[in-house]
């Protein structure tokens, strides 16, 4: 076994290693130099397409057909997308392995799931006229640069909303880069543009000139986490600046005349410059190392390193992880290195093993940890084993050690080694695996149709496997040539009863494929009613969709279906559909009340709901701005009910007719008593209208203004009870302060409401004198109450007399307590006249 | 591992707040916020305006006012997306801004609590979907106090009972489901009412759906979430329809009366500044302008003084205030005099801000109480209360008709009259046909013909209806389960308590000075069986252990009562996989029955008096021994409402114009 350090290179005081992942990657005939190559993050798929700017040899018809080819890192062709849709300006990947293809006219096609299906959207914002120049991608979005230097940002592919960023100057752009929103200070995407000799930083609101003068900058590269920026100047220098622009960290002179074709970060520590067959790796403090190739080389940056791709070989360049350095560095004296040594000695049955263990005893735990971590970072299976063995040996010596990490890493390494296998071609580093998460890894495997491996890994890691099953079923539905019954039976047999399976998605795939019957069949197995609705609508099973929506209880869904039906069906059949479903009817009614009165009217008519129809007309009458149309509507409302003979309708109709009568009377009064007549304005500063008042209020107003005749007319017309009328008269007179009339009333023998209200109302209005007139009339009340009434009026003497009359000594004494001045004397006198009790 | 208490107020509000701020943070730069009026209260409870400003909110606007200006490039709409009307309002404003404004705006719409398909569809039809970035803010429960959670669905009542629109049932189910996923299934769902049944069915259905779709979302927590919770005892669902009368009555607790007089929305009430003193004087404000100004007062459940007052019967509030005033005075004064050593002095000074806050609170509540006393002294208040008390105690309702007629003639506010009439109708299974017609006519004459619509709406809500079908001359015996029969209930649940003690309450009847709210009695019949059984039928031998009362066996009390109450009765047990359940209870530790939470959900809204009554029940449980000892009662509802609101959703606002 070759030494683990064989592929290490020292750059400054740090080690870098170049791990050979796969050999014989591409066909030797493929002139990689003529292709653009982009790799998906986390060691994902590689997409290549012919660079149209470069000449190529004519190879007959077959090769002239252009296509985008998606390969695994090991060079296995995953999919070929034939391309005849215009000039490709940029190709990029999202974090979840969606391939984005941007054409010159601003159309973006988003190919998902490594399949040939895509969702298109357009950039807009003038992309069509000015043309897309290039794009820069990040995990969940991208920025496009147009011919007129406008920048368009798309931040989500699920719901793309292309947004125009602030407009930079329109001078030619030498190079540009973006800082992804996750790592920028402003939490939104920022663009760095090299224009002229300076740099501009552009975000949604402003384009700021950073006032550099060392340009023009030929390349700009942002480190994976945005903490450093690298610039390549025209005179061959590489500058590294911190992400907040505060420090210039290093400057490296490449002393090369030709501008490199690419500059990328390798992790966050080093910058790689690539020429056609030469790569320079520049570490901190401006030290560099150089790699030479015998073929065209492409750089595919990743979060923690860089993939180098040539026809022959796919290599991974990364900074050697600290733990690995600790274990393997030549002459390392670290406990971990000793532990590894000890374990190999043990294998040779050498007693020295124990000596070594005793030597590192105090830091053995740490050594075990280091070995485990180093194993995780190791690509070579031999060394993974050695390190894990060492760790296992070490922990057997320790008394107490939690093996969780050890077990975890063993699991992980099994998974990693499986997916690194050349037929799968996902050469992930441990770090990438951690960031991608196992769930996403399974998704990637599923998209590559590696179902068996995906299922194995899912069960090995105790992860849900429903998506894998679904994907399989969808694929089955799409490509299988079996009869529909067989497909359905097969799918149901395999998937029924497994938790989390969305039969809806499978059915949708079937429906998209045109297998409607299969789709219907499959949909029956979907337990979630709500989920079935959109597909059912798409399959034109409208009434079933409505029933399922109602079943789900989600009003939004019901509404959705109803809106759909309303648009599609003629009114009569629409009503027929909703008629038998009360919830649907209620929803239609409730929304139509706000939105569409006409519909409601038709609905009530259709259903023969006369009362409600008439009420609707009444509502309309109320919303009329003037009287005449309101009266018309009222008439209609009443007419609506004329055929109904039941009691509520009769009452209703009567009420409506009375309303019309009242309104007409009110109109008449307004005409008669308008302010031209000075008599009407007595006591009121402005003339109050009558229209819109209730019958009682009308009487109240009339009485207030002294129109007793008219008030009585209303009373008799509308059969207003005598009591009510009496109350109204009392309140109207009090509010108009017609005291004399009130005193007149006091001369009446009887009042329908008794006399007490008179006292209370007048007292509340503050007139004690008039109020007191009514006290003697309240004969129904007891003495104590009457005394209280007198007292309230401040007439203590009267109160005293009342109490005296009743010969109530206690009351009288009470009154004395309240009295003052001359009243005291009087009360005293009365007290004296009362015979002493006891 | 201590189990996390379910329905934790701080946790729920913190999450809602974080969610919103995260959404706002996602929109770069300054922005104008356009929000639906119904959300203002909840927003105010959760986030301070200054915090919103920190997150770039420049000016707030109300969606209903349609007045958002073009001062900022970013315009954020915050609205409920369930109703087509709101969606269209948003769409119209976006269109208006786009038409009128010189600059290009960035529109964002945050739908509460979820983005709906309908909203997408309507926005698309209006041609604005492409212009706006649409997100959702999953705001469900808003904690109003530690034990009160409201969905703050203002339309819930009119939707459910007038328009029969079940949106709020679905949203309630969603909200409860979210809690279940976090804290485990409610081991038992029991309750009363047709809509309540629908809610329970939805919960069961959602559970199977979640189980089916389980692993498609992140599987971790929900896996554990779908076993019965060991911290929640049961979910009791009460459909408002079951107990309209309680809502129609005038609430007599302090908080209830504040609500009746000033109206509380989202713990805030608007009081005339002449009552509570003006807001801190602001420069440039003339004295005359502020004289009729309304001032917003926060009714803070955290305020120590208020928390002692809020659930007391108003009759004793005066005393409590008095006591508090005296205590405060003595503690400040004596300390001042006696403060000899510097250490004591320092201690006193440290307490000073607390005293000041208490003083302020005391001042506020004293003036509020004075205002309420003014209200309760009015003739109208006493007369209507008298009618209510008579009806509830079982007097023949026709004896009250004269008073009601008189009140109509005196033109007192319509809602008060409607409450009385509806009360009579709902407690007596409808009104006699002739009486009903007389009153209808009286109302139309007194308050205007437009109320023909009001009356129709009330009938639709089953609040005001003729007895037993339309004058067919049949016996008033309506279909069983369609109306509540109060006569047997008064006895079997002891709804009327003559020996009510307001100062030192021993039963929930104190909240209405005699009437014990039916809904709370139903809850009691489930969680406080023995107490209730002893109350209804005191055992002959006072020494006999409380458990001996035969009435308290099983579900008898509840079942007996439920027979006479309208609406469906339901009782679901939710058992999960047995093993998981066991594992969970082992995890939760030994406290099997101790300290379990009972969740009472009021579909359609809860009144403040009922909250007070439930707190009383909860308090007894906490202190008590035996059944459900140490338990906690949490009140959830679609909203906190009062009788005004109930009849208010029927009242027609328009009138004829000349």
UniProtKB/TrEMBL annotation, chain A:
Transferase recorded as keyword: no
Key words, A-Z: Protein transport, Transport
GO molecular function, one term: actin binding
Keyword Protein transport: yes
BP GO terms, sorted: endosomal transport; intracellular protein transport; vacuole fusion, non-autophagic
InterPro entries assigned: VPS16, Vps16_C, Vps16_C_sf, Vps16_N, WD40/YVTN_repeat-like_dom_sf, WD40_repeat_dom_sf
Recorded superkingdom: Eukaryota
Residues annotated as domain Vps16 N-terminal: 4-408
Residues annotated as domain Vps16 C-terminal: 501-819
One cellular-component annotation, GO: HOPS complex
PANTHER family associated with the record: VACUOLAR PROTEIN SORTING VPS16, VACUOLAR PROTEIN SORTING-ASSOCIATED PROTEIN 16 HOMOLOG
Record function comment: Essential for vacuolar protein sorting. Required for vacuole biogenesis, stability and to maintain vacuole morphology.
Family statement: Belongs to the VPS16 family.
Protein name: Probable vacuolar protein sorting-associated protein 16 homolog
Organism for this UniProt entry: Massariosphaeria phaeospora
Automatic annotation (TrEMBL), chain B:
InterPro entries referenced in this protein's UniProt entry, alphabetically: Sec-1-like_dom1, Sec-1-like_dom3a, Sec1-like, Sec1-like_dom2, Sec1-like_sf, VPS33_dom3b
Gene3D superfamilies, alphabetized: 1.25.40.850, 3.40.50.1910, 3.40.50.2060, Syntaxin Binding Protein 1, Chain A, domain 2 (3.90.830.10)
SUPFAM superfamilies with a match to the protein in the record: Sec1/munc18-like (SM) proteins
GO biological process: vesicle-mediated transport
Residue stretches spanning the membrane: none
A Pfam short name: Sec1
Region (Disordered): 274-293
Family designation: Belongs to the STXBP/unc-18/SEC1 family.
Protein name: Sec1-like protein
Source organism per UniProt: Massariosphaeria phaeospora
């Amino acid at each position: 076994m070759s030494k683990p350090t064989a592929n290490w290179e020292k750059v400054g005081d740090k080690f870098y290693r170049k791990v050979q992942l796969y050999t014989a990657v591409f066909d030797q005939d493929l002139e990689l130099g003529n292709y653009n190559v982009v790799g998906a993050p986390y060691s994902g798929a590689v997409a290549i397409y012919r660079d149209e700017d470069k000449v190529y040899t004519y190879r007959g018809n077959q090769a002239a057909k252009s296509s985008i080819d998606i390969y695994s890192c090991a060079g296995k062709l995953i999919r070929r997308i034939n391309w005849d849709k215009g000039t490709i300006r940029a190709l990029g990947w999202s974090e979840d392995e969606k391939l984005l293809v941007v054409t010159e006219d601003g159309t973006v096609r988003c190919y998902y799931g490594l399949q040939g299906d895509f969702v298109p959207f357009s950039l807009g914002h003038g992309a069509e006229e000015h043309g897309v120049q290039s794009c820069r991608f990040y995990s969940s979005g991208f920025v496009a640069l147009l011919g007129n230097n406008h920048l368009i940002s798309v931040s989500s592919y699920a719901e793309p909303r292309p947004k125009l960023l602030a407009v930079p100057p329109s001078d030619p752009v030498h190079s540009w880069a973006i800082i992804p929103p996750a790592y920028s200070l402003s939490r939104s995407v920022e663009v760095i543009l090299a224009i002229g000799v300076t740099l501009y930083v552009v975000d949604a609101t402003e384009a700021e000139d950073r006032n550099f003068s060392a340009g023009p900058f030929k390349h700009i590269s942002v480190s994976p986490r945005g903490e450093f920026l690298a610039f390549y100047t025209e005179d061959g220098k590489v500058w590294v600046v911190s992400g907040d622009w505060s420090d210039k960290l290093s400057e490296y002179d490449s002393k090369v005349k030709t501008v490199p074709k690419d500059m990328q970060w390798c992790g966050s520590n080093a910058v790689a410059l690539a020429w056609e067959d030469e790569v320079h790796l520049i570490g901190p403090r401006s030290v560099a190392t150089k790699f030479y190739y015998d073929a065209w080389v492409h750089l595919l940056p990743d979060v923690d390193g860089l993939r180098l791709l040539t026809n022959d070989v796919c290599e991974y360049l990364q900074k050697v992880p600290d733990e690995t350095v600790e274990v393997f560095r030549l002459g390392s004296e670290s406990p971990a290195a000793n532990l590894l040594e000890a374990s190999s000695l043990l294998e040779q049955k050498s007693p020295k093993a124990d000596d070594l263990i005793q030597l590192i005893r105090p830091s053995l735990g740490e050594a075990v940890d280091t070995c485990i971590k180093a194993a995780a970072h190791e690509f070579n299976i031999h060394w993974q084993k050695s390190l894990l063995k060492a760790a296992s040996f070490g922990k057997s010596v320790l008394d107490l050690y939690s093996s969780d990490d050890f077990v975890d890493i063993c699991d992980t390494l099994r998974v990693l080694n499986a997916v690194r296998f050349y037929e799968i071609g996902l050469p992930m580093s441990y770090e990438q695996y951690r960031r991608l998460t196992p769930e996403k890894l399974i998704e990637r495997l599923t998209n590559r149709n590696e179902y068996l491996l995906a299922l194995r890994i899912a069960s090995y890691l105790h992860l849900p496997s429903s998506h894998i099953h679904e994907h399989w079923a969808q694929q089955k539905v799409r490509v299988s040539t079996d009869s529909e019954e067989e497909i359905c039976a097969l799918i149901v047999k395999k998937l029924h009863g497994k938790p989390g399976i969305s039969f809806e998605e499978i059915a949708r795939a079937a429906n998209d494929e045109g297998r409607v019957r299969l789709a219907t069949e499959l949909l029956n197995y979907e337990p979630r009613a709500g989920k079935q609705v959109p597909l059912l609508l798409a399959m034109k099973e409208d009434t079933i969709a409505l029933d399922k929506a109602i079943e789900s209880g989600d009003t939004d869904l019901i509404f959705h279906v109803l809106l759909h039906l309303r648009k599609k069906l003629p009114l009569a059949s629409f009503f027929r559909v909703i008629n038998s479903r009360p919830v649907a009817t209620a929803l239609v009614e409730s929304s139509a009340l706000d939105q569409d009165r006409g519909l409601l009217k038709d609905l009530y008519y259709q259903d023969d709901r006369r009362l409600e129809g008439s009420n609707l007309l009444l509502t309309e009458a109320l919303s009329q701005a003037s009287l005449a149309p309101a009266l018309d509507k009222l008439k209609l409302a009443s007419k609506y009910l004329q055929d109904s003979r039941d009691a509520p309708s009769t009452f209703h109709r009567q009420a409506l007719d009375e309303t019309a009568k009242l309104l007409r009377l009110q109109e008449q009064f307004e005409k008669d008593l308008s302010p031209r007549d000075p008599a009407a304005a007595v006591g009121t500063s402005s003339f109050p209208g009558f229209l819109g008042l209730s019958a009682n209020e009308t009487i109240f107003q009339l009485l207030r203004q002294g129109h007793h005749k008219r008030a009585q007319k209303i009373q008799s017309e509308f059969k207003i009870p005598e009591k009510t009328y009496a109350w109204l008269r009392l309140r109207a007179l009090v509010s108009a302060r017609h005291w004399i009339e009130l005193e007149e009333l006091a001369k009446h023998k009887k009042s329908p409401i008794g006399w007490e209200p008179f006292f209370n109302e007048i007292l509340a209005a503050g007139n004690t004198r008039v109020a007191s007139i009514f006290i003697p009339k309240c004969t129904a009340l007891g003495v104590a109450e009457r005394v209280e009434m007198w007292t309230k009026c401040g007439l203590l003497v009267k109160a005293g007399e009342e109490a005296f009359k009743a010969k109530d000594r206690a009351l009288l004494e009470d009154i004395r307590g309240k009295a003052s001045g001359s009243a005291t004397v009087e009360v005293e006198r009365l007290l004296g006249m009362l015979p002493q009790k006891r | 591992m201590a189990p996390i208490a379910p329905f934790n107020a701080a946790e729920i509000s913190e999450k809602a707040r974080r969610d919103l701020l995260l959404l706002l943070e996602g929109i770069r730069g300054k922005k104008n916020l356009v929000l639906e009026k119904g959300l203002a209260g909840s927003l105010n409870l959760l986030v301070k305006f200054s915090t919103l400003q920190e997150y770039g909110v420049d000016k707030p606007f109300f969606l209903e006012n349609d007045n958002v200006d073009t001062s900022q490039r970013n315009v954020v709409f915050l609205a409920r997306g369930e109703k087509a009307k709101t969606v269209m309002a948003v769409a119209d404003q976006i269109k208006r801004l786009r038409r009128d404004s010189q600059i290009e705006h960035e529109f964002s719409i945050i739908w509460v609590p979820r983005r709906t398909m309908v909203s997408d569809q309507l926005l698309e039809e209006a041609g604005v979907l492409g212009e706006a970035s649409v997100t959702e803010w999953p705001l469900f429960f808003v904690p109003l106090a530690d034990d009160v959670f409201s969905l703050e669905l203002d339309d819930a009542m009119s939707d459910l009972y007038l328009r029969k629109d079940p949106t709020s049932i679905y949203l309630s189910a969603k909200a409860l489901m979210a809690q279940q996923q976090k804290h485990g299934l409610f081991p038992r769902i029991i309750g009363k009412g047709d809509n309540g049944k629908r809610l329970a069915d939805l919960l069961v259905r959602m559970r199977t759906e979640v189980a089916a779709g389980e692993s498609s979302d992140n599987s971790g927590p929900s896996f554990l979430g779908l076993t019965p919770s060991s911290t929640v005892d049961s979910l009791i669902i009460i459909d408002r329809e079951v107990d309209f009368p309680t809502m129609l009555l005038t609430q007599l607790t302090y908080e209830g009366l504040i609500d009746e007089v000033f109206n509380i929305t989202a713990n805030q009430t608007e009081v005339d500044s002449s009552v509570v003193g003006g807001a801190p004087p602001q420069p440039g404000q003339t004295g005359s302008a502020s004289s009729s100004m309304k001032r917003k007062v926060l009714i803070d459940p955290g305020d120590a003084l208020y928390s002692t007052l809020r659930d007391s019967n108003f009759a004793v509030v005066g005393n409590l205030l008095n006591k508090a005033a005296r205590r405060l005075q003595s503690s400040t004064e004596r300390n001042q005099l006696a403060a000899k050593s510097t250490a004591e002095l320092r201690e006193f000074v440290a307490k000073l801000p607390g005293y000041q806050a208490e003083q302020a609170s005391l001042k506020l509540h004293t003036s509020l109480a004075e205002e309420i006393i003014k209200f309760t002294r009015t003739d109208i208040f006493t007369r209507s209360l008298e009618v209510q008390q008579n009806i509830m105690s079982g007097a023949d309702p026709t004896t009250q008709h004269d008073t009601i007629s008189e009140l109509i003639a005196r033109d007192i506010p319509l809602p008060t009259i409607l409450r009385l009439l509806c009360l009579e109708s709902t407690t007596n299974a409808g009104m006699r046909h002739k009486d009903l017609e007389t009153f209808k006519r009286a109302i139309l004459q007194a308050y205007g013909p437009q109320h023909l619509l009001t009356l129709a709406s009330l009938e639709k809500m089953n609040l005001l209806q003729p007895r037993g079908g339309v004058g067919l001359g049949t016996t008033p015996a309506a279909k069983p389960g369609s109306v509540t029969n109060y006569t047997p209930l008064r006895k079997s649940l002891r709804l009327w308590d003559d020996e009510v003690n307001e100062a030192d309450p021993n039963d929930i009847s104190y909240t209405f000075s005699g009437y014990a709210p039916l809904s709370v009695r139903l809850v009691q019949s489930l969680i406080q069986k023995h107490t209730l059984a002893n109350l209804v039928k005191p055992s002959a031998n006072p020494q006999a252990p409380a458990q001996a009362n035969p009435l308290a066996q099983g579900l008898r009390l509840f079942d007996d009562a439920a027979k006479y109450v309208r609406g469906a009765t339901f009782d679901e047990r939710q058992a999960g996989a047995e093993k998981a359940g066991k594992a969970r209870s082992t995890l939760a530790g030994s406290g099997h029955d101790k300290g379990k939470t009972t969740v009472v959900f009021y579909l359609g809204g809860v009144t403040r008096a009922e909250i007070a009554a439930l707190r009383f029940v909860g308090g007894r449980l906490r202190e008590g021994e035996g059944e459900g000892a140490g338990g906690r009662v949490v009140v959830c509802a679609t909203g906190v409402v009062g009788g005004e609101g109930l009849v208010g959703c029927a009242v027609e606002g328009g009138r004829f114009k000349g």
